[in-house]
Amino acid sequence: MSTSNPKDLTYDADGNLTSGEYTAEGDVIFKTKNLTVDCVDYEVSDGELKMKAQTADSTVSVRAEKTKFLSADAEGKAAGSFTVNAKAVTVKSMDVDKDSLADSALAAGSTMVLLSEKMYAGAKSSDVKSKKVQVVSEEIGAFADNTLEAQQGDGKAVVQLDGGKTSIGGDKTQLYGDTTINAKTEIKDELKAPKATIDHVEAKSSFKSPNIKDGMSAGGGGGGGSLSAKLTVEDAPAEDTSSTEAE
Predict the structure, then answer these.
(1) What is the secondary structure of 92-150 as a DSSP string?
(2) How far apart are the C-alpha atoms of 111 and 191, rounded to whole Å?
């Protein structure tokens, strides 16, 4: 099926096409309840037509300046579902070689928007999850109006940004490299350090060392408690697996 319009075609003496244009024009409209594009081999078994295999090297290609998939009711409300399922899925904005159509470069000024009331990445349920999720970019920003939280091992280790506060919790918290704290710091348990340089020391109850002793030795602090995670993992909604394939 073609709606292309031939224009200015020329032929050689043997009738072979040598130049001209074919311009796509007009419209092709399908109106039906179910539409199936099928690249499948079938066989007849026990008098019934059954799928034998997905056709080897089969391809469905769509190429247009604008491609839209829309499922909305008469009021404009989003409805229905859209599912893509394959062993390898790629979504990209790339320039391609004009002949081979192989990727050549990232499309300048390209954008991609993923937006939904709830989004799930990396897991469908607690027992169906990705083995690896990798995010790489020159810049990465994560922004949350209320709570931003990273967890490991069902909340065994937590980094939490909530209510203007940053909290880090785990069995052990380790910092490496030069560290600067630009605010008042409160330590609610014992502090150990091989060496400390302090401009001013004030001991409210006691001060003790092997060489200097003033007052009574104080017991250990009460401990700082532990950080509780705020967010929990949710299973993704079940997919609509009903088939639109004609019987």
Answers:
(1) --EEE-TTT--EEEEPTT-------SS---SEEETTEE-S------S------SSEEEE
(2) 50
Residues sharing a CB contact under 8 Å with residue 144, sequence separation 6 or more, in sequence order = 161
Rounded to whole angstroms, how far apart are CA atoms 227 and 165?
12
Query: What does DSSP assign to residue 78?
Result: B
Residues 6 or more apart from 43 whose CB is under 8 A from it?
Answer: 49, 50, 52
Q: Residue 235 contacts by C-beta under 8 Å, 6 or more apart in sequence?
A: 123, 124, 125, 126
Q: pLDDT tens digits for 61-114?
A: 999 999 999 999 999 999 999 999 999 999 999 999 999 999 999 999 999 999
Residues 145 and 161: their CA atoms lie apart, in Å, by 10
Contact predicate 162/146, CB 8 Å: yes
Average pLDDT over residues 135-149: 93
Short-list 26, 27, 28, 9, CA closest to 18: 9
pLDDT of residue 238: 79
Burial class (CB in 10 A: 0-12, 13-18, 19+), 247: exposed
d(Cα 170, Cα 5) in Å, to the nearest integer?
A: 69
For residue 205, what pLDDT is reported? Answer: 80
Q: What pLDDT is stored for residue 155 in this prediction?
A: 82
How far is it, in rounded angstroms, from Cα 172 to Cα 169?
8
